[in-house]
Amino acid sequence: MAIKSLLLSFVSIAVLFQTSQAAAVKRVACPHSTHTAINPACCSWYNVLDDIQENLLESECGENSHSALRIVFHDAIGFSRTKDFGGGADGSIIKFGDTELEFSANAGIDETAADLQPFADAHGKTYGDIINFAGAVGVANCPGAPRLQFLAGRPNATAPAPDGTVPDPFQTIPVILARMADAGFSPAEMIALLASHSIAAADEVDTTIPGTPFDSTADQFDTQIFIETQLRGTGFPGTGPHQGEVESPLVGEMRLQSDHNFARDDATSCIWQSFADNQPLMSQKFAAAMKKLAVLGQDVSKLIDCSEVIPIPKKTTVTPHFPAGKTHADIEQACATAVFPDFPTLPGPAQTVAPVPPQ
């Protein structure tokens, strides 16, 4: 009898726990919207989500989603731990666009800044918030991507970031790593951030071939960037037709000089290689580095977690592989402590990579 009573007590406790958990996640209807929210303070962001997906990002992993992610980095990295400048992720690249968009490292960002500003103004959001929200939503449109955190409530920027804070692809690895360290990022976090190049394309490195992707699957957040950059190129750093470019062995694909060097430098080559066959690790490390980037210079205690508004990305349909016509023999081994993993080769003739179409 005592055992029966004890069991009933455990059942009662379990029911109470489940009931309390359900109450904790109770959603409320958002006004003037079909959405519901766990935190009512996040309701207005659902309106921004609907607007930006329909009228800018088109709910796809296309050029505008790629650009939305790019501007997050270019805005936030204008920050220093050792010098008195930069507000970090504060939207200064929009608010003080007349200054920052003239920097050579920000070439091409002006279009994205001009696209995002009306959404911020229409919905009463700060530029720092709209940049980080659009970046998180843009990433979520790409299959295989992690669901990024989004915190709202950044105050408006009060000053522009100085020139020289955004790394350039033609700079040496020590110079880039020193700049990133000054902003608070380790070499491992730098490589994690470069997972963004799996859904990136170049417009300004060579303006005659806009939309040239950095890997063969620019519509998927996958590990191909870490595989294809390790293939032997047809040139050497600095020998591409434009500054900051190394010729890729794949027709239609662009390889940044900095990516080429990161994949081969003693300080980063093994980190680079570790992502080649490990999609979960790449996604986890990218999400952690982006979480840090998105709040540079901000007082996190004053921000509201509205991550619930960010869509849940689909799973990628791509498994790691060598492009058609390439095998493990084409890999330029760089990591001294582990052999580059082997992958199947896609069937067919040598692969030509298609450009990312404009939106």
TrEMBL record:
This is Peroxidase. Transmembrane segments: none annotated. The active site is at H74. Ca(2+) 2 binds at S198, D215, T217, D222. GO terms for biological process: cellular response to oxidative stress; hydrogen peroxide catabolic process; response to reactive oxygen species. InterPro entries: Ccp1-like, Haem_peroxidase, Haem_peroxidase_sf, Ligninase, Ligninase_C, Peroxidases_AS, Peroxidases_heam-ligand_BS. PROSITE patterns: PEROXIDASE_1, PEROXIDASE_2, PEROXIDASE_4. The keyword Calcium applies. Belongs to the peroxidase family. Ligninase subfamily. Its cofactor is Ca(2+); heme b. Residues 67-339 form the Plant heme peroxidase family profile domain. Disulfide bonds join C30-C43, C42-C306, C61-C142, C270-C335. It comes from Rickenella mellea. Residues 1-22 form the signal peptide.
